[in-house]
TrEMBL record:
One of its GO terms (cellular component) is plasma membrane. It comes from Pseudoduganella violacea. Belongs to the CobD/CbiB family. Keywords: Cell membrane, Cobalamin biosynthesis, Ligase, Membrane, Transmembrane, Transmembrane helix. This is Cobalamin biosynthesis protein CobD. The chain crosses the membrane at residues 6-24, 58-76, 299-321. InterPro entries: Cobalamin_biosynth_CobD/CbiB.
Length: 331
C-alpha cells in the first residue's frame, strides 16, 4: 500500500475523507478542481490545433495530470508521518463529491414538489448538458436521477476505489482524469480527436469501479424483484448505451428502483432518442430522493465493507504471526 499504509489505517482515512465531505461539502472558494479546470482550458486552447490532434490530446492530458499527481506524491513523501497520514484524508475530501450530489439534486426535488418549474429548470441546467428551457417535471426528474446514478460512480465510487488502490494520489489521478473526460471527451468536431485520450483513459480507470457500483445498486435494491430487475436491465440495456461505464451504472440503478430513464432528451435544440434504462414508472420529484438514498447507502456499504475487511485483517494478523513462530525451526 502507498507510503506503507496498511488496510486498517487506509480504511480510517477513507472514513475521515467521507466524513469531511459530508460535514463540509465543497470548498466555496479556491476549490482545487475548479483551478484544475481553468488550467485544463488553457492547455486545451494552446494545444488543440488542426494537425496531430490525437497526439496533442495525449500530450495535453499528461501535462494536465502528471505534474499534479506527482506533486501529491511528493507532498506525502516530504511531510512528517502524521501530517502525511492526514493529507491522504484531505486529498480524498477534495476529490470526492458525495455531499455535492445531494446539494445539487435535492433542491431540484424541492422545486418540483413546489411546482416551481422555472427554478427546477434552472437548477437542473447546472448539472446536465441537455436543454431544460422547455423541460417537463418528468424530464427534469429523469435528468436528475440519471445524473445522480452516473455521477455517484464518477464523483464517489471511482474515487473511493482508486483511493483504496493508491491512497490520496490514486484519488487525485482518478478525479483529474474524470474531469478531463467531462471537459474534452466529446465526439464533436473540436474534441473528437483531441479528447480521444481523455475519454479512453477515463473509460479504463472507470471500468472496475463502474461494475462494482452496478453490483452495489443490485445488492441494495429494496426488493428481491428489484434485484432481479436491476441485473436484467444491466445485462440487456447497458450494451446499447454509448458509455461503456455509464450504461451498467444507470441501467442497474434504474432497475433497482423500478424507474424508467433514458429515452428522449434535447441537446442543442435537437431531440435525441437514447436507449431505455430501467423498467417501471416514470421518475418524479420523490424519486430523486430515492436515487440519492441509493447512492448514499452505496457509499456506506463500501465503507462498511472496507471496515469489515480491516477488522478481519487485524484479527488474522496475530494468528498468522503465531503460525510463523511455530513453523520457524529453532537453532
Amino acid at each position: 500500500m502507498l507510503m506503507g499504509l496498511g488496510w486498517p489505517l487506509l480504511t480510517l482515512l477513507m472514513a475521515a475523507g467521507i466524513a469531511l465531505d459530508l460535514l463540509l461539502g465543497e470548498a466555496r472558494r479556491w476549490h482545487p478542481l475548479i483551478g484544475f479546470g481553468n488550467l485544463a482550458m488553457r492547455i486545451e486552447k494552446a494545444l488543440n490545433r488542426d494537425m496531430a490532434r490525437r497526439l496533442r490530446g495525449i500530450l495535453a492530458w499528461l501535462l494536465a495530470v502528471a505534474p499534479l499527481v506527482a506533486l501529491s506524491v511528493f507532498l506525502l513523501d516530504a511531510a512528517g508521518s502524521m501530517l502525511a497520514i492526514a493529507l491522504h484524508a484531505i486529498l480524498l475530501y477534495f476529490c470526492i463529491g458525495l455531499r455535492s450530489l445531494r446539494d445539487h439534486n435535492l433542491p431540484i426535488a424541492d422545486a418540483l414538489q413546489r411546482q416551481d418549474l422555472p427554478a427546477a429548470r434552472m437548477l437542473t441546467a447546472r448539472i446536465v448538458s441537455r436543454d431544460t428551457k422547455q423541460a417537463s417535471e418528468a424530464d427534469l426528474a429523469k435528468a436528475s436521477a440519471e445524473s445522480l446514478l452516473e455521477n455517484g460512480n464518477d464523483a464517489v465510487f471511482g474515487t473511493l476505489f482508486w483511493f483504496a488502490v493508491a491512497g490520496g494520489p490514486g484519488a487525485v489521478l482518478f478525479r483529474l482524469a474524470n474531469t478531463l473526460d467531462a471537459m474534452w471527451g466529446y465526439r464533436s468536431q473540436r474534441f473528437q480527436h483531441f479528447g480521444w485520450a481523455a475519454a479512453r483513459i477515463d473509460d479504463a480507470l472507470n471500468y472496475l469501479p463502474a461494475r462494482l457500483t452496478a453490483i452495489s445498486y443490485i445488492v441494495l435494491a429494496p426488493t428481491l424483484q428489484g434485484k432481479r430487475r436491476a441485473l436484467h436491465c444491466w445485462l440487456t440495456q447497458a450494451p446499447a448505451w454509448s458509455s461503456p461505464n455509464g450504461g451498467p451504472v444507470m441501467s442497474s440503478g434504474a432497475g433497482a428502483l423500478g424507474l424508467v430513464l433514458g429515452g428522449a432528451a434535447t441537446y442543442d435544440g435537437e431531440v435525441e432518442q437514447r436507449p431505455p434504462l430501467g423498467s417501471g414508472q416514470v421518475a418524479t420529484a420523490a424519486d430523486i430522493r430515492r436515487v440519492w438514498r441509493l447512492v448514499l447507502n452505496t457509499a456506506l456499504l463500501w465503507l462498511g465493507l472496507a471496515i469489515a475487511t480491516a477488522a478481519l485483517i487485524h484479527l488474522a494478523a496475530p494468528a498468522a504471526a503465531d503460525i510463523l513462530v511455530k513453523e520457524t525451526p529453532h537453532a
